[in-house]
Amino acid sequence: MPRAVREQQMLDAAVRIFGQRGYRAASMDEIADVAGVSKPLVYLYLNSKEELFTACIRREAAALVAAVRAGVSGGEGGGGVRGGLPADRQLWAGLQAFFTHTAERPDAWVVLHNQARTQGEPFAAEVAVMREEIVAFVTSLIAEAAREAHRKPELAEREVAGLAQALVGAAESLAGWANGDASVSAKEAAATLMNFAWAGLGELMEGRRWVP
Amino acid sequence: MPRAVREQQMLDAAVRIFGQRGYRAASMDEIADVAGVSKPLVYLYLNSKEELFTACIRREAAALVAAVRAGVSGGEGGGGVRGGLPADRQLWAGLQAFFTHTAERPDAWVVLHNQARTQGEPFAAEVAVMREEIVAFVTSLIAEAAREAHRKPELAEREVAGLAQALVGAAESLAGWANGDASVSAKEAAATLMNFAWAGLGELMEGRRWVP
Q: Does A118 touch chain B (CB under 8 A)?
């Protein structure tokens, strides 16, 4: 079996065990066992528990970002065919992709969202880069929507940044809610957030703010 | 100095050091030093690092929940004088209280939001109770707003639960954003979320959903 394939099997096993046991409690013995390889081979390929965890974070962060981008642009390799869609349709596609991906890979979501952020460096920095990339992507979607609506006054750049943070935080929270309740589908979670966010963002785009 | 006062000084020091160094890296020596007491006295009063951390979580969780409730009900000891206010004003008051409190106690927010949730049990359970209490409180506000609006169809209980999760997650995300950028005031963070959430929730209350 080629090394690249073996490594992916090790990473699959590691994401599962890290996600279920936590970084510190996870044992390299169990990871090797689940991957169906010897522990020395895991060390030979991935060097250390720390490097293995870092590799898990990188792979899963890249997979999540790719899934969301592919959702927005109309599928893997779709080459951005949905680029001409209105911003709300792009957001809806992105949310569906996000909740589908996190529902399909609950252990990976736990590794990224719950574990990596708080195990100190270098892990926190790895996942912070991913979160910033997603916030920047959402920021560009919101800014584009504001330009489309082009009512005055345009949303300030600073407020767009805040709205993107709110949207990403809401999505993170709902992913945990949906993954913790088997009766909540990815589509339902996406629809809940779309209604919460868009009807709200939609009003903002039209220059209608909530006033006390 | 009475024991109760000394204990609060120790907790003040512990929240600061745990917040800045992380649970594992924090040293009892530094905590005792910052509190201006001997290390044996910290152990005499709080028993262990684990119990000290648990006491920090409990105190800060109770303080945060109390601040939000007081904001909504019109101040500490206000006895719910704002109970008659429309739901949007109650939410606005609650958000201002939340962002003011988390801005004033950034180390406490890091302990509750970033550290306690991921250091395993018993800490995760302590902070999960607080989060559930806040989600339940927000759920009741949203349900009340829906009853006020009483347009048909009423929001389903399940969707209200999802909206509350979205709102709490958005608030958590914005607290981190605001605390990480000194130029973002508590009031600005609250206003950003209020516009995001209420204009959106407001449309939902009127039965106007986003449709693809």
A: yes
